[in-house]
TrEMBL record:
Pfam families: adh_short_C2. PROSITE patterns: ADH_SHORT. InterPro entries: KR_dom, NAD(P)-bd_dom_sf, Sc_DH/Rdtase_CS, SDR_fam. The lineage of its organism: Bacteria, Bacillati, Actinomycetota, Actinomycetes, Kitasatosporales. SMART domains: PKS_KR. Keywords: Oxidoreductase. This is Ketoreductase domain-containing protein. It comes from the Bacteria. Residues 3-188 form the Ketoreductase domain. It comes from Streptomyces pharetrae CZA14. Belongs to the short-chain dehydrogenases/reductases (SDR) family.
Amino acid sequence: MPRLIIVTGAGSGIGRATAERFAAHGDGLVLAGRRPDRLDAAADALRAAGAAEVHTVPADLSDESGALRLHDHVEALGRPVDAVVCCAGGTVDAGDGHLKSIAAEWHDTYRANVLTAVLTVEALVPLLADTAGIVLYSSIAAYRGSAGTGGYGAAKAALHAYTHHLATRLGPRGISVNAIAPGYVAGTEFFGDRMTPAREALLIRQTAMGRAGTPQDVAGLAFFLCSPEGAYITSQIVQVNGGSQHGV
């Protein structure tokens, strides 16, 4: 029987590339995210590429009801979960700088980047197979801050503490828990229209390899961490950034 893999934020970018990497291995997939049209498009593309099993669960995973919807769908499949990869997240507009908008920005950023991971994992813990793998997606911003908004880097840093907590808590079951902190990854919607040519050139110059990352660079590591070969790696924050320095 194929493994069962849960990927959140799977409709685009790194999340979609992650789903594609597991599908190429023959794993069964449950794709979850807020945008049904993106999930359906990703699922159709995976099936067209030969994926044997793809389910979609449209849900806002920053809310308890969305996490419970995912839990119920997965439980109905009747077999244990072999890996959970939490890719959902993103930035929130900075607002007008007044205290009320700052509070809203930080609150919404925390929900989008921390609660989407925490509620997903906690909803699925009872369904995890022993020796399952969990991967959370952090960011280089957790180390050097984030341009334009402090909330994003702070939220991603919170996932580091949660990673260590989960690894200790679930380790006796043989479950590994790690986080991946990518640097600049091209070909995603993350920056929207905020990425200027000058900014992109600067981010690439900061790497040792002289190129931007790709979604596949990140997806390959997530797959490895959830494989038997990566099973003894746990409680780690792995940076995938081409050797980027912690500059601005």
